[in-house]
Amino acid sequence: EVCRDKCDAVLPLVRLLLHHHKLVPFVAAVAELDLRDTQEANTIFRGNSLATRCVDEMMKIVGKHYLKVTLKPVIDEVCYPAETSLGKLSPLEGDNVEINMENLRYYVDKVFREIVRSSISCPTLMCDVFYSLRHLAAKRFPS
């Protein structure tokens, strides 16, 4: 009744909850509701629910600086093609799927290593939200 589009309410809601230090319990509560309707572990948090939208907005607000510091140097380094779809490769232009797969693996590994290496500087709020989501998911799908 207040908003025409629920998406319009998410950003102000997240900002308000952040200001009052209530985002983690709120996300946990709405995520728990989402998990009740989730039938398979493979589909956890894949929908465009209130919980996933709140997490997305929180990461944009809280994690933007962390993301830039952590991944921008690696992303700036990416200069080789990594196209692996045979239908999009052009042998006439020198495309080689094996070389591109090696490039892709190299950069994915490098990004992963940087994320793991930077875990100490990940914003505490993001860690708290992710811990809460992991705990709820493990409770719903123990295996």
Automatic annotation (TrEMBL):
Coiled-coil boundaries: none
Keyword Magnesium: no
Gene3D superfamilies (alphabetical): GTPase Activation - p120gap, domain 1
Domain Ras-GAP: 5-143
Keyword ATP-binding: no
Superkingdom classification of source: Eukaryota
Record keywords: GTPase activation
InterPro entries xref list: Ras_GTPase (IPR039360), RasGAP_dom (IPR001936), Rho_GTPase_activation_prot (IPR008936)
GO MF, one annotated term: GTPase activator activity
PANTHER family according to UniProt: RAS GTPASE-ACTIVATING PROTEIN 2, RAS GTPASE-ACTIVATING PROTEINS
Protein name: RASA2 protein
Encoding gene, per UniProt annotation: Rasa2
